[in-house]
Amino acid sequence: MHALDTRGTRRGEFKLKGSDNKDWEDLASFKLEGTPYLMVADIGDNDARRKKRTLYFVEEPPAAKKSDATLAWAVSYQYPDGPRDAESAAVDIGNKTALILSKRDLPPRLYEVPLFPETDDTLTATALGPVQSLDRPSRQDVEFAPKTKDWYWQPVGMDISDDGLAAVILTYRAVYYYRRQAGQNWFDALNTQPVRIGIGNFQNAEAVAFGDKHRMVYVTGENKNSLMISVDLAGVREP
User: DSSP secondary-structure letter at 117?
Assistant: First the structure.
């Protein structure tokens, strides 16, 4: 894994010992009793064939040119409604759960996995339901996507802010920003009207993360030397 600063400059890299990279798709940072951790989400499954997916957890190492990090714990899970592809994961530290958003369902479906299960056995994720707030493609868009290679509506990244008040979902064409009200759960919050910020035709946009408590967001792609853009939401009027 590689560390970048908010200007896209490479700060270092590390190997995660004890993990198996079948199809890593998303990272999430969070603090537990003051200690920073990373969740590495091995949740990709383009052909929806894998019965088991795994979330890896590691204490966030310092940025160094090259280093190793040791796995703290891992959680393996399956979906209650069969294998599916996902690229979006976030940590809801308040409820000590991970949220997983499927990619190819229309609409995408949100699932919940506990961070600290009582057993080492493979868990069955809880299906929370469909997220209806993202742009929906037309029937023609879906039909021609394999030819145009344009699946603009598919979610490819997600993050929850450190203060637990906001979340973002990234698609290939936009960032969707959500504010959670007092007492509201994330499923309900993600089904409210978001603030939508278009990012143009950002080739291979795959990663989104908050850079502060809940107003600055960064987006980058999965290619080598990909661009990084910042989205300042401080002046955005919320719906």
Answer: -
Q: Name the E strands within 199-239.
A: 205-210, 216-221, 228-232
Give the domains, in start order, of the chain with CATH numbers. 2-232 (2.120.10)
DSSP conformation class of 76: E
Instruction: Return all residues near 234 (Cβ < 8 A) that are at least 6 apart.
Output: 215, 216
CA distances (Å), origin 230, targets 77, 174, 207, 233: 33, 13, 12, 10
Residue 60 binned pLDDT confidence (cut-offs 50, 70, 90): confident
Cβ proximity of 219 and 177 under 8 Å: no
Q: How is residue 8 annotated by DSSP? A: S
Average pLDDT estimate for 105-110: 97
Q: What whole-number distance in Å separates Cα of residue 239 and Cα of residue 231?
A: 17
Spatial distance between the Cα atoms of 188 and 18, rounded to a whole number of angstroms: 36
Pair 111, 117: CB distance under 8 Å: no
Q: Which residue has the tokens 């979006």?
A: 88
- Banded model confidence at residue 67, pLDDT cuts 50, 70, 90: confident
What pTM does this model have? 0.93
Structure tokens at 44: 């990709």
At residue 190, does pLDDT exceed 70? Answer: yes
Classify residue 181 by burial, with Cβ atoms within 10 Å: 0-12, 13-18, 19+.
exposed
